[in-house]
Specification:
Blueprint (H helix, E strand, L loop, with lengths): L19 E4 L5 H12 L6 H11 L9 E7 L3 E12 L2 E9 L8 H13 L5 E6 L4 H6 L3 E2 L11 E6 L9
Parallel strand pairs: 4-5
Antiparallel strand pairs: 1-2, 2-3, 3-4, 5-7, 6-7
Bound molecules: coenzyme A (COA).
Length: 172
């Protein structure tokens, strides 16, 4: 799997200090799922709930048919973003975003999100996120705002949205 151009929104080079981004393929799935597992382990849920729910979050080759996977890596994968490419009127869905707990607050999640937005911009007007409560501050810091009157239940109480259209007056 070759390194692809995933430039910053301002057009600067893809690589950030210490890590770079690239699209992922089937060979990356073990490393991707290691990050998913480590990241989910930090959620504020019981060990039993985490154990039972983990299989739902692991990615398989079947997922690659409709998801675009991006990874951030140093000498190893440290972060993952998964983008569901079937856009509806409200935009592309960010299916998942996971950063190794040892690598947080270093900008890895933001760079993955920006790269995902760059891809999403070609497919829809905006990006939707079913945010975990623990990730609300991260998404709000990145310009996402709550879509009102939508409640997906306890696991995903917050559906967030960010317009990817410049000067779109519907942006929150
Ligand atoms: C959410 C997540 C992807 C963020 O990744 P990250 O690489 O740590 O994020 P960044 O370093 O780019 O953070 C950017 C900004 O978001 C905000 N932010 C990020 N994590 C935060 C936290 N735990 N608490 C408060 N603000 C936070 C801060 O404003 C931060 O900027 P700062 O570090 O300069 O203060 C990561 O915490 C994670 O993998 N969580 C578990 C999986 C998950 O819940 N994913 C979201 C599913 S919807």
């Amino acid at each position: 799997m070759s390194i692809v151009s995933l430039g910053s929104p301002d057009g600067s080079a893809a690589a950030s200090p210490g890590f770079h981004l690239r699209k992922a393929g089937p060979a990356d799935l073990p490393a991707v799922n290691t990050i998913v597992e480590r990241a989910i382990a930090t959620w504020n849920s019981s060990a039993r709930v985490l154990r039972l729910s983990l299989p739902l979050y692991r990615y398989t080759e079947l997922d690659l048919a409709h998801l675009e996977l991006l990874v951030a890596e140093t000498s190893e994968v440290i972060g993952v973003a998964a983008l569901e490419m079937t856009a509806d009127d409200s935009g592309v869905l960010l299916h998942g975003l996971y950063v190794d707990p040892q690598q947080r607050r270093l900008g890895v999640g933001t760079r993955l999100l920006q790269a995902a937005e760059q891809i999403a911009r070609r497919h829809g007007r905006g990006m939707r996120v079913r945010a975990r409560p623990e990730a609300m501050a991260f998404f709000e810091a990145n310009g996402y705002r709550r879509m009102p009157q939508i409640d997906l239940g306890d696991a995903y109480p917050r559906l967030l949205w960010k317009s990817l259209v410049v000067d779109d007056s519907s942006a929150a």
